[in-house]
Amino acid sequence: MHHIPKRRPLPLLLAGLFVSHAASAQTTAAPAQAADTSQPIQTVQVTAAHLKNERNELSPKVGTTVYSLDSHAIENLPQGANTPFNDVLLHLPGVDQDSKGSGGVHVRDDHGNVQYRINGVLLPENISGFGSSIDTRLIDQLDFMTGALPAQYGLRTAGVIEIQTKEGVRNGGRIGVQVGTRGDFEPSLELFGTQGNLGYYLSGSYLRNDIGIENPQPTKNALHDHTQQNKSFGNLSYYLNDDTRLGLMFGTYNGHFQIPNNPDQAPAFSLAGQSDAAAGTSNLPSAQLNETQREVNRFVILSMQKSLGDLNYQVSGFHQYSELHYSPDPLGDLIYTGVASDTLRSNSSYGLQLDGSYKLNASHTLRAGLQATRQHTYSNNSVGVFPVDEDGIQTSDNPFTIADNSGKVGKLYSLYLQDEWHISAPLTLNYGLRYDKVDAFTQEHQFSPRVNLSYKLTPATAVHAGFSRYFTPPPQELAAQSSIDLYAGTSNAPAIPVSNNVKSERTSYYDVGISHQLTPNLTLTADAYYKQIRNLLDEGQFGQALILSPFNYDKGYAKGLELSAIYTNKHWGAYANFSTQKAMAQHIVSGQSLFDPDELAYIANHYIYLDHDQKFTASTGAHYHFGDSQVSADVLYGSGLRKTPDGGAPNSGTLPAYTTVNMAYSHEWKTGYGTLEGRLALINAFDHSYLLRDGSGVGVGAPQFGARRSVYAGLSLAF
After folding, report:
1. What is the enclosing helix (H) or strand (E) of 87?
2. How far apart are CA 182 and CA 100, in angstroms?
3. Contact at 8 Å (CB) between 430 and 60?
4. Beta 311-327 vs 339-359: how paired, if at all?
5. Which of 254, 500, 528, 635 could form a disulfide with 590 if both were Cys (CB 3.0 to 4.6 A apart)?
6. pTM of this structure
7. Alpha-carbon distances, residue 628 vs 496, 656, 672 (angstroms)
8. Per-residue pLDDT tens over the stretch 410-458
9. pLDDT recorded at residue 9
10. CA-CA distance, 413 to 436, in Å (whole number)?
11. CA 526 to chain centre
């Protein structure tokens, strides 16, 4: 596993890291036959490289913290390109592991708040679910940016994941299949190439296994946990001339999940002819429930990129549709929770994005841009409930159904202007101003100043520092407001009949860091940050459907330190990351009906840890290449997320620490059809049983355990 922490202005120095295995990795990915050296393909290659460089220059990274991965680094992971996208991110500093239902990963103690960009275009948000709609195979280069971001980056600011996709420069492809424990079966196909002035990259994959969501028990195999998922992606580029590119990107994701069952649960409600809560009997054991969830996401982006000497710009139009449908067990959910909610959430987004840069002179590069997005969100719920009295005691064992439907049209507008000023050879300043406005469940706006400084102390050492003011609107696709009054006198009535609309988070962010190349092979980095936050946004799972709901704390803060070391040599490389962090908040000021009254009263007067806070996180790994073979291993460590102890304050406890070890062996064979690779991977090699969540904590659902030992075998042919 290779990752490249970068601190501008050392791009050339750090871009050369982690190339010890580059030659062999390129051999794996390249066709076996000799490259076509005809003039048309050479022309497309040169034009594509020129415009790709200009596109990258539209997105400044001065004074930020950047860690980079390329496709060869991903191949060094135990599962290679079959690694789930969120698992790739776990090998970066400051990224914590969580359950899939709680968002999968957290960046610098934030819940969500991550933006995804593909080839410079910001992807509209999709409704949170279990699967990541991004396929790891499409990545050519991934830049993971955190810290005090320049004015170009707004709205979701805990981290920016900027992906440069693979592009066709010669005709070829890759076909592969992975099989493994718990019924894992994953075929995939990639095709790339050029036809005249058209370059293309297409990929598709299918996944089937019996570990779609984390197990609520420590057993090796979960009950009722089958999943089927398919993904597709396409990137087409047509070059009108040396300075103009037309682009089309599209992607689809379809995921079907069974919700795992937790056996031996006592019935909480009496259902006529099915259960008796007082006697503790039920005709439908909790081990036999049939709850399912379906997730859909698709997007299409049309873009035009133009280079006019000192002026470069890219304009893009995009559309995204996402949908999440939770289907309850119509009897079981009523028996064990008193609520059976058939929930359908959908979100459709349209928008325009423009980014431009102008090289004013040798010292100044101006950048400006705008973005406008229109979202239409629907929330349709058919909710089965029981009648209850004023004390919440069930008064009838015959349920009835409530229709709870709503919709919202929301708009987001953003503008920015910034200047990259090369004051002297070692010193660069990037300063700018951003304006954001949201008109949805909340109507707010903010002007946000940004300033970032980088200084090259010596040829081997660079420092950076920055301040950014952030404005983060609540995710509209999650912030659907239910009608609380509809549930009065039912088993779904909230204990607190008040729920203020969720607000936008406002943050002052400070960041400072240093990068030092100790030897030609060893680079060390350190980065520290502090965030002062008003209307801190958090998310939790409060119902049976695994859909997150946002809410605000009145105020909060987060701080942390990240350390990283990277070593490269001709045949092997290694890395190590360590981070420590702390995030606390006080007084919940929106979504109050989601909480227990005692919990809410305590938080109103006390700072508490955020439920996803983890004090220590570490990752390390190494790979060794010999001949046509490679061995690799990595280790992930977490000190444990938060829990609420029995009788204790909310989120005041910590789950046990855990360590997982993963390893792999791969070998290549040159054939007349291309390069054949075989791979054997062992995940959680020592079969460690560990808790990601124990079911307690603010906004936490059921207990969830990390995956037990898994074995995967893969075979792929690059042609």
Report:
1. helix 85-89
2. 18
3. yes
4. antiparallel
5. 500
6. 0.89
7. 64, 41, 16
8. 999 999 999 999 999 899 999 999 999 999 989 999 999 999 999 999 9
9. 35
10. 6
11. 23
**What's the pLDDT tens digit per position in 567-609?**
998 889 999 999 999 999 999 999 998 899 999 999 999 999 9
Task: Name the band, by pLDDT with cuts 50, 70 and 90, for residue 60.
Answer: confident
Q: How far apart are CA 413 and CA 309, in angstroms?
A: 29
Burial class (CB in 10 A: 0-12, 13-18, 19+), 675: buried
Tracing tokens 């069952």 back to the chain, one arrives at 261
Q: How many residues does the chain have?
A: 719
What is the four-CA torsion angle of 492, 496, 497, 503, rounded to 10 degrees?
-110
Average pLDDT over residues 611-623: 96
Distances (CA, A) of 466 to 154, 418, 431, 469, 507: 15, 14, 10, 10, 14
Residues facing 69 on adjacent strands: 142
Tens of pLDDT, residues 183-208:
999 999 999 999 999 999 999 999 99
pLDDT exceeds cutoff 50 at 38: no
| Cα first-last separation, the chain | 24
Residue with tokens 């708009």: 411
pLDDT, tens digit, for every residue of 639-664? 999 999 998 999 999 999 999 999 99
Residue type, 5: P
* Tokens read off for 238: 């047509």
Look at residue 51 and tell me whether its pLDDT is greater than 80. Answer: no
Weakest mean pLDDT among 98-107, 117-126, 181-190: 98-107
The single-letter code of the amino acid at 615 is K
How many degrees, rounded to 5, is the angle at CA 176 between CA 172 and CA 181? 165
The answer to whether the beta carbons of residues 496 and 584 sit under 8 Å apart is no
Q: Residue 335: phi, psi to the nearest 5?
A: -65, -45
Give residue 48's pLDDT band: very low, low, confident or very high (50, 70, 90): low
Contact yes or no for 387/394 (Cβ under 8 A): yes
* Domains of the chain with CATH codes: 4-718 (2.40.170.20)
How far is 118 from 112, CA to CA, in rounded Å?
A: 18
Identity (one letter) of the amino acid at 15? A
Q: What's the one-letter identity of residue 613?
A: D
DSSP-derived 3-state class of residue 600: helix
What pLDDT digit, counting tens, does each position of 397-409 carry?
999 999 999 999 9
Please tell me whether residue 21 adopts helix, strand or coil conformation: coil
Joined together, the tokens standing for residue 641 give 């997320």
**3-class DSSP state for residue 8?**
coil
Q: Would you state the pLDDT for residue 32?
A: 30
Helix (H, G, I), strand (E, B) or coil at 137: helix
Tokens 């119509």 sit on residue: 330
Assess contact for 429 and 455: CB atoms under 8 A.
no
Sign of the alpha-carbon torsion through 24, 26, 32, 34: negative
Rounded Cα gap, residues 132 and 89, in angstroms: 12
Q: Is the alpha carbon torsion for 161, 29, 663, 260 positive or negative?
A: positive
Residue with tokens 């709680």: 102
Q: Are 293 and 268 in contact (CB under 8 A)?
A: no
**Beta pairing partners, 19:** none
Joined together, the tokens standing for residue 399 give 């349920």
Q: Helix (H, G, I), strand (E, B), or coil: what is residue 12?
A: helix
